[in-house]
Each structure stands twice: as structure tokens, then as C-alpha cells.
TrEMBL record:
It comes from the Eukaryota. Its main location: endoplasmic reticulum. Residues 137-338 form the TLC domain. GO terms for biological process: ceramide biosynthetic process. Residues 344-386 are annotated as: Disordered. CDD domains: homeodomain (cd00086). This is Ceramide synthase 2. Residues 75-135 bind DNA. It comes from Esox lucius (Northern pike). Keywords: DNA-binding, Endoplasmic reticulum, Homeobox, Lipid biosynthesis, Lipid metabolism, Membrane, Nucleus, Transferase, Transmembrane, Transmembrane helix. It is a multi-pass membrane protein. Gene3D superfamilies: Homeodomain-like. Residues 351-363 have a biased composition (Acidic residues). GO terms for molecular function: DNA binding; sphingosine N-acyltransferase activity.
Amino acid sequence: MSQLARMVSRVSAWFWNERLWFPEGLGWADLEDKDGRVYAKASDLWVALPIALTFLVIRQIFERFVATPLALLMGVKEKVRLRVSHNPSLESFYCNTTKNPTQSSIESLCKQTGCSERQVQRWFRRRRNQDRPSLLKKFREASWRFTFYLLAFIAGLAALIDKPWLYDFKVMWDGFPVLTLLPSQYWYYMIELGFYGSLVFSVASDVKRKDFKEQMVHHVATILLISFSWCVNYIRAGTLIMLVHDSSDYLLESAKMFNYAGWRNACNYIFIFFAAVFIYTRLYIFPFYIIYTTYVYPLTMYPPFFGYYFLNCLMMILQCLHIFWAILILRIAIRFLSANEKVDDERSDKEETDESGDELEEKEEVKNGLVQNGYTIHNNNHRKTE
């Protein structure tokens, strides 16, 4: 145990080395509370953990008592999904092999089950639909995020509206790193960090979209950026970054809510407004003002150090994700403006429908008594002649 303790001590001493995180001549001693001035401390970040757990509880209450009634009020209609009959062979293949069988696999399954190709294809189509999240679940998740992002944006704007670095980004470095921590900055940081922590905790139950990996990278990079900027007192830069991100997120979630409720025009026009705000804040303000101020301006004051590179590396990761999402957003916006089509989230899996040929075959099965209570009854002793 003593060797382990010494190893942990050495790693801790290396990790918190002043030369890694501060410019030459500055260090942790400059961030000790004195003369009535309070500074951010790494130990403060533990407060975000109970806040994250509290968010999980609040979310459950909100979704049940606020989001669900709101969904009914807005007319969110669930599509009736036909459930598949229990078929051990097909279920085993679906769970253990793949949800999208190839043609050769379908032929093999036909031989095992005595079903036709169309019956097997329809079974897998309906089985995939059963696993897809319902509209109500999507609506509740979007309404929860909309509520948080809107309140966070309002709170962040209220905390920064009278701060000079909101209007002149270079001011964020005046006196760095000896910058007094304000109560509004403390709670803004802890609540944002707690919320993103709750998103990581709930990832297993949230709706999984096609950009799931990119979302996880974004959440992790955001948590690291918030935590790191707190520890080394990049708090002014951190509050600006959070405000820029919150400025468009609530618009996207509101567009999703209207989309799930079937309010096409409201969804489309809110999405176009969101696209404009997203592109302006994430592809213009963020790279050309905030990143410029954190990458170029500090070099006029201090020689580069590890913390400088680490901060800007995390910001560049976020910027790459912004470009990735901007491409998706522009594709949707251009399609809508050019053809007046309905705005759809390209990250979501689409509900699969039975083809007309399958529907005719199913009617024939009903006529022949092969379907009961919505389930197909397969007679393994009956085989179609090839």
C-alpha cells in the first residue's frame, strides 16, 4: 500500500505541476484566497456530482408531470406499431447476430422457420420498429433539454450582461490568472457541469441517434473543458463558451418538440432560425472571436505552456464537431428551402413501413385464417411449393 501511495503521490505531483498549467512566474499560490478575494478550486468540482444526480431526479419528475401533459396538449400522437409474433429462431438471430439480415441469411431463416421471405422481412422490419423509441419518449426528452437550455441561456446572459468581457473578449485575460470568483460564475459553472454530467449518466436510456459517438465526444470534451477552465481560472472564457453554446441549443430542441407534435410550419421556421443562429455563433463567433482570443492574444502576454495548448485543443475538438453538425443542418435547411419539404432530423432512424406487396400478402393471410389478434400463425407443416 505504501508503494501505491507513493506512486499516486508522484502522479498527483506531476499532474498538478505549476509549469503545466500556468505561465512562467505564476502558480497555485496566486489562487489562494486572501484579502477577501475568493478563487476557484479544483475541489469545488465535486459539487457537480450531487447536482448531476439531482438533475436526474428532476428530469423524471418533469417528464412525468410536465412533459407528458404538454405532449397530450400539443397533440403528440403515437403510431400504432404491429408487434411481431414470438419466433425463437428469428429472435435469436435478431439479438445475437444482426438486426438487418442479408439475403442469404433470410433464405436460411426461411428454411429454419418455414416462413416465406416476405414474412421474414416483415418480421425483422416490425421487430426493429419495436426497438425504436416512441414519439412520446422523444418529445419528453426534447422538452427537458429545451427547458434547461433556455433557462441556462437566460441565466448565463443575466450573469454576463454587465461584464465587460462580453463585449470585448480581450478583457477576459486582464489580470489572468488572478481573477476573483463571482457567485454567479460559481453557480453557472456548477449547474452546467452537473447537467452535462447527468447527460452522460442517462446515455443508456436516452434516444440513440446516428451521431451518438459524436455526441459522447462532445459531452466528454465539454466536461473536460469546463473542469479544466475552472481549475486554472479560465472562468471568463468558460462562461462565454457556455453562453455561445446555449444560445442555439434551446431552438433546436423546440423545433424537435413541434416536429414530434406534427406542427410542420412551426417546426420548419424555428429550425431555419436555429440554423442561422447556430452558424453565426458556432462557425463565426466561436472560431473567429473566442478561439482567436484564447489562441492568439495570450501569446502577446505569456510564452506558450501546456495549459494553453490543452485549452485550445479541446476548443478545436468542439469546433470540428460544430462543422460536422453544420453540414447536417445545412443539408436539411437547403432541402427545405428548395423544395419546401418537411424538416426531419437526419440523425434519427426512420420508422419503417410495410410495403404494399407485404400488406396485400398479410390481407391474404388474414383471409386464410393465418393471422389472429395481429399475430401471424405459422404452420410449419405447410410449405409453399417452389
